[in-house]
Amino acid sequence: MTKLTTSERLLWARLLCAQSPLGANKMRNLRQWLENNHLSIADFWQDLERLCPLLHVPAKQQSALRQVRDQWPSPRLAEHLARQQIKIADINDHDYPALLRYIPDWPPVLFYQGHLEVLSRLGVAVVGARALTAYGQLAIEQLITPQWQDLVVISGMMTGADEWAHRRALSLGIPTAAFLGYGLNNVWPANLAALKHEIVASGGVLVSEFAPWSQSRPFHFPLRNRLVAGSSALTLVIEAAVNSGSLITARLALDYGRDVLAVPGSIMSELSRGCLELIKKGALPVASSQEVLTALSESKIQLLAGVHAVSLPIASPVVTATTSQTCPDFGDPWQNQVYALVLSQKLDTEGVCTALGAQAPVLTALGFLELSGEIIRGNDGYWRAQLKS
């Protein structure tokens, strides 16, 4: 898929503004369907009544889309976003969070305020209980140190561990990114309003895939959690009860092929049980800032980016591949299969997943190969191997 124009990006963002938005999965499917049928997003909005039934869009969503079309024409929405200093990022934009491209449920469009490019840095997601204890607060202060200067601290902009992680990063001059479970026009809880402004003013970013005026809803937060986990190289759990939202984030991180770290705590504390369960299942227990940095330096993502890299590398110019080339051994069967397929065929991401009959491991392999400069995705959306001289 090619990079969108400003007007096209706005038209895609309008899909998130309905009271019953299509959601990430349907938006991705719509995008592919339009491309396959040589239609644009402008064609979709101009012919909702005919195209929605063809796409099996439920009646409730059709009504919500018609309401957006009538109440939020593109010029009005553009004016509203500009007034609120809200920008739109599309999956093919250069500043779209690099690691989010390689989760199976990536968001096609994001709203953001601030500096989205900070998410090109390697990020550590710091999550934990809303009812953070004094022990959890001290753990955050001990783990997030000036040694993290070249990283970005990622969390979910809620009270408790999220708030403490953002504030600790700000106090040390470390950029921080907050993914919200509501629209950017709102703040919840209200006492975090000043923190929201401080994050942007300090060079950080606020990100949401919900319409700017959306209120918080219980089902928004699991969706938000996948963005926290997916945009990070590793996830650090401070304190968590069993079956808490923090454990959902940790499980998502594992599903995405990312590392999970947990702070051990007292067996007497309810808020330590979630961390202890994670450690039993293979999460790395950590007790110092250096241990977090060591885990980051030994992760696959960081090794491929280079131990001392700050930003993810930009791939070199494309060289046309031929099937006569010998495929290198990357030490990972999925990476080997993906590289061999890209070397021999012209495929986009969906095509690679379909050809290999898997999604999550294929997306992870694509990410690792792109980060190491072995493959590149062109403006047409197709993957190409980078042949070494």
Task: Please give a quick description of this structure.
This protein has 389 residues and is of the alpha/beta class.
Q: Overall mean pLDDT score? A: 86
Poorly predicted runs are 303-325
Q: Under CATH, the topology of the largest domain is which?
A: Rossmann fold
Which percent range fits the helix content? 40-55%
Largest sheet: 9 strands, mixed
CATH class of the largest domain: Alpha Beta
Count of alpha/pi helices: 17
Provide the fold topology:
Layout: H1 6-14, H2 23-36, H3 41-46, H4 48-54, H5 59-71, H6 74-83, E1 87-90, E2 109-114, E3 123-127, H7 134-143, E4 152-155, H8 161-171, E5 176-179, H9 193-201, E6 205-208, H10 220-230, E7 234-237, H11 245-255, E8 259-262, H12 270-280, E9 284-285, H13 289-298, H14 300-305, H15 333-344, H16 349-356, H17 360-371, E10 375-377, E11 383-385
Helix pairs in contact: 7-8, 10-11, 15-17
